[in-house]
Design brief:
With 318 residues, the protein is mainly alpha-helical. 82% of the residues lie in helices and 3% in strands. The chain is built from twelve helices and four strands; from the N terminus they run ααααβαβαααααβαβα. The strands form two sheets. A two-stranded antiparallel ribbon has the order 1-4. A two-stranded antiparallel sheet has the order 2-3. The two termini are 23 Å apart. It is found in: Membrane. One of its GO terms (cellular component) is plasma membrane. Keywords: Membrane, Transmembrane, Transmembrane helix.
């Protein structure tokens, strides 16, 4: 048991590091070949923030742990909104002013409803996985298109540009991309296997291990990035990372088990977890969206979200 815990923790650290290095290399290479910082931020960086979840989901599905992969997708969204955004807002209230985010928020809500519609019958089918992954490619294309249409005065433009690495040679960028592509799946393999062994030892289901330990672990980079972002005054970027990550979790992460290991879902998915995710997404929409101007996600909002996360954990293990 102790060995599996050590393997899990080391795997988690290496997974997060390799994902960060992959995004670093890909962003630097994209900048070097002339892609705009906004397009890099909305596509490469956003997708990279979900890279740990995507790879873990693929490995878990390939190993026959479909509900671990589903739990990872739903649990990561729950954790991103309730824990990551909750703590971030408690550290410093977030001012939501980007029109880009106000386009992404309705998209997240629509995609959440589509995902719930697919899970509602208690089964994730192969064609549903294909549809989700197809929508993932479509959303990437739409984000690339939006990056070309965005108002230059949008605060997200300057915040994104500041985060893109500068002065990195193409050779270095390619090396880091290669390192990420090799180490990401290896670390995910060890993380998933150790997590499954821990779950068996503790007598909990594959779903719960995906909803809790794996989801929390793979969301730690978002927590660090969001807190660092608001402390630097990059509120829209911090919130954008969470929204983008949640969109990709529902499309790419949830699409993996549908494509690789379709089958019957744990009943708790469609009786509990997907509704918790939808409820938190609606709260995020309510706290963030204002048709007539800027909106602040306050410390009170952060406390409500964090209380929801704690209550959900008690529900899982109570």
């Amino acid at each position: 048991m102790l060995l599996n815990i050590v393997i899990f923790l080391v795997g988690l650290i290496v997974l997060s590091w390799s994902a960060d290095r992959f995004v670093y290399g890909a962003s630097a290479l994209a900048k070097n070949i002339g892609i705009s910082p906004m397009m890099i931020g909305l596509t490469i960086v956003a997708m990279g923030s979900s890279a740990p979840e995507i790879v873990v989901s693929a490995i878990a599905s390939a190993n026959g742990n479909m509900n671990t992969a589903v739990g990872n997708a739903l649990g990561s969204n729950i954790t991103n909104i309730a824990l990551v955004l909750g703590i971030t807002a408690l550290v410093k209230p977030l001012l939501v002013s980007s029109t880009t985010l106000k386009r992404e928020l309705p998209a997240l809500l629509i995609i959440s409803l589509i995902a719930i519609g697919f899970m509602f019958d208690g089964e994730l089918k192969s064609y549903e996985g294909i549809i989700l992954l197809g929508l993932f490619i479509f959303v990437l294309a739409m984000m690339a298109w939006l990056s070309l249409q965005v108002d230059k005065e949008d605060p997200l433009v300057a915040e994104t540009a500041d985060e893109i690495p500068k002065g990195v040679s193409n050779t270095s960028a390619l090396i880091w991309i290669g390192v990420g592509l090799v180490i990401l799946p290896l670390s995910a393999h060890f993380l998933v296997n150790s997590a499954v062994e821990i779950a068996r030892y503790m007598g909990i289901s594959d779903l719960v291990i995906g909803l809790t330990i794996i989801a929390f672990g793979t969301s730690l980079p978002e927590l660090a990035a969001s807190v660092a972002g608001v402390l630097k005054g990059e509120d829209d970027l911090a919130l954008g990372n969470i929204i983008g990550s949640n969109i990709f979790n529902l499309l790419a992460v949830l699409g993996m088990p549908g494509l690789i290991a379709p089958g019957i879902l744990d009943p708790d998915v469609y009786n509990r977890d997907m509704y918790v995710m939808l409820g938190l997404t609606l709260l995020l929409f309510l706290f963030s969206f204002d048709l007539i101007g800027k909106r602040t996600i306050s410390r009170t909002n952060g406390f409500i979200l964090l209380a929801c996360f704690i209550g959900y954990q008690f529900w899982l293990f109570g």
